[in-house]
Design goal:
mainly beta, single chain, three-stranded antiparallel sheet, Immunoglobulin-like, about 0% helix, about 60% strand
Amino acid sequence: MILPLLPAARFLQLSQRITLYPSLVTERRFWLQLYNIERGVFTIYFYTLSGVLLFKSFLAHKEHFSTHTICLPVLISTGIYKVAVCCGDSHYLQTIVIR
């Protein structure tokens, strides 16, 4: 399943920040940090570079600043992937490497 980005989708404003770290994942988990972002339910999509959706996860962001641990399922092998973080019509996209 491929998630199309709608023409109306917008990137987050500069005062808002999403950080995924580390970008080189070695322990089957990474962290998602949300800063200066309104509360809401965020959807995390994990894609191959060819656009195949491997899994999705939901998280509840309850404060303006929070850090969430995203654990990868065992079906994810080493390689380069895209992670999309979406809430409403806003989205953030980052590439990560699994080693």
